[in-house]
Amino acid sequence: KVAIKGIERELICPACKELFTHPLILPCQHNICHKCVKEILFAFEDSFADGGSESSNQSSPRIRISASSMDRIDRINRSGRKRNSLTPRSTLFPCPSCRRDIDLGERGINGLFRNFTLETIVERYRQAARAAIAIMCDFCKPPPQESTKSCMDCSASYCNECFKIHHPWGTVKAQHEYVGPTTNFRPKILMCPEHEMERVNMYCEICRRPVCHLCKLGGGHANHRVTTMSTAYKTLKEKLSKDIEYLISKESQVKAHITQLDLLLKETEVRVERAKQEASHSFEKLYHVLEEKKSAALRAIETSKNIRLEKLQTQVEEYQGLLENNGLVGYAQEVLKETDPSCFVQTAKQLHVRIQKATESLRSFRPAAETTFEDFVVDTAKQEDILGDLSFHSNGLEIPEINEEQSRVYNKALISWECPGKADSADIYVLEYHKLNKEEETVTWQKTEVCGKSKVISDLDDDSSYAFRVRGYKGSICSPWSREVIMRTPPAPVFSFLFDDKCGYNSEHLQLNPRRTSVESRAGFPLLLGSERLQVGCYTTLDYIIGDTGIAKGKHFWAFNVEAYSYLVKVGVVPSNKIQKLFHNTHDVTSPRYEQDSGHDSGSEDAFFDSSQPCTLVTLGMKKFFIPATPAAPKDPASRILPLPSCLGICLDCDRGKVGFYDAGRMKCLYECEVDCSGLMYPAFALMGGAAVHLEEAVTAKYREYHDDI
């Protein structure tokens, strides 16, 4: 048997760091106090209202709010729900133990199971820790007597007299179950939190939680694998018992490891002092270099000051000599008193030169020295950056590399990286990024800490280039920065829509996936029947499909992928007033007569093409991108054919009446033309033969799923 006092560590709530009180089981299988969950969710709401990343309430658990949690709180606050002081509105928060985002769903805290087993163990621990503290009767008049038993049905404690009064013989209450004095009252039957009148009788192996038969029939566990509660009880108990027996059998090995760890603790204490001395010595050398540089700079400034003061003082004395009866002027006045011409000429010639120089100096006055010391300003910007990056470098940590294939920028930026070597991976990574701006002289990096190897970044400016770099940290040791990767954001905000399965959708030729994010044109039997009815020399019709959401104003961007095997795909936009014409256009049938680049009477055909097309489309197919033949386009047909990018984008600017077609991987415009945006504009696609188009999925903060490791 394990001593109850030896398991205190397992009975501490990770949020409040105290013994569990009414512990709840989170979806990640960790436990947390009921009151702590509410405090965390309320702290999230207060933090969001204050615009900060952490709660301002010092008494509540301090947990960093992730980007996905902030997005969820934002949606909840904008939903307009009324605040209830007893029930938090937020339902998403990071688990204090594993840091995963926990989504409580619509039922919130009420959808969590209470861990009665853990609660019972905590109660036994409390009783062992405070054996001298008695549990008092709940029904005695003051002063209350010490209780002798507790009723599990009444959830109350009684002394002998009160128990007889409230549980008289011959009544239903006399049949209640009673135990020794306790404060832990648990229900006899565990009820389903989603269906409060149903008892749990099954165990969901996918979600790892008990469920009732209604959850399995029509609830969220309808398609999950479940087993009976007795089978789950037997299986889990056998596994747990075997694991415990294995650990107990390895007791000698555990003790040996503990002894080894004790030695490592002592060795760590010795080595940490040595590391401190080495670090202090390194910084002292830096201090010495800085002191020498400081002394040299101060000496240079002092020398320059003395030279300047000497020059200015000399200039002051010279100008004082220009005053009457003083200096040069006084001397000249005395010379003028000389009456002997030969003696006067001998002295006056040299004196006249000096007087002329003084007069010239007076007319063009200029100080003999500058008073500013701009040449002596020490530029320490680069050194400050280097000192800011000063850390413990280690050869054991590999330099992470940003994976450009897995990283992408769409509505948000998803940056992924990996460590190519087999060395120990870092405990945490620091991702830095900044906007490339030629006008800014200094670069300001924005920093974010990441526990994994990918990060979603929001709030990037449209039509801008950003540089990204990452480094790893293991304790105080860090790796060098990775190579900087430049990525460009879309030219406009991302426009979200799905394929419309109602308006003009041809289900015989086109097939949508259940999420309506992919459409495929299959050259099957219906297509053969359609071709059999056409005249000789004609091809088949284009099958059109549009987006389910229109654009009225502003500038918007969306991206998609065209399968490499696609024979013919057209993409672009269509106004709402021409949608019917699009789906019922008699000239949809393409043949050598109507083909724009067929070589037959090209001028008249271009005019016919421009006037007959109800929408603005470009042609894709056979791994090529075809620039339409316009007066501004190159005359050589070969120069109008480009390789098909892996991801294409369309930017519609309703205010300017422009639509652009982009290589979405590099955010480079391939072709732009004018478009009439007087009506509601819809994304339009046309497919013929074997072809498929997949809409680019938005980057979301929640890109990891829980692993089923039961």
TrEMBL record:
Main location per the UniProt record: cytoplasm
Domain Fibronectin type-III: 396-492
GO cellular component, one term: microtubule
InterPro entries per record: B30.2/SPRY (IPR001870), B30.2/SPRY_sf (IPR043136), Bbox_C (IPR003649), ConA-like_dom_sf (IPR013320), COS_domain (IPR017903), E3_ligase_FN3/SPRY (IPR050617), FN3_dom (IPR003961), FN3_sf (IPR036116)
Subcellular location per the Swiss-Prot or TrEMBL entry: Cytoplasm, Cytoskeleton
Domain COS: 336-393
Domain B box-type: 187-229
Domain of life: Eukaryota
Molecular function GO labels: ligase activity; ubiquitin-protein transferase activity; zinc ion binding
Alphabetical list of SUPFAM superfamilies matching this protein: B-box zinc-binding domain, Concanavalin A-like lectins/glucanases, Fibronectin type III, RING/U-box
Any single GO BP term: spindle organization
UniProt domain B30.2/SPRY: residue ranges: 477-704
Transmembrane segments: none
PROSITE patterns tied to this protein: B302_SPRY, COS, FN3, ZF_BBOX, ZF_RING_1
Family: Belongs to the TRIM/RBCC family.
Name of this chain's protein: TRI36 ligase
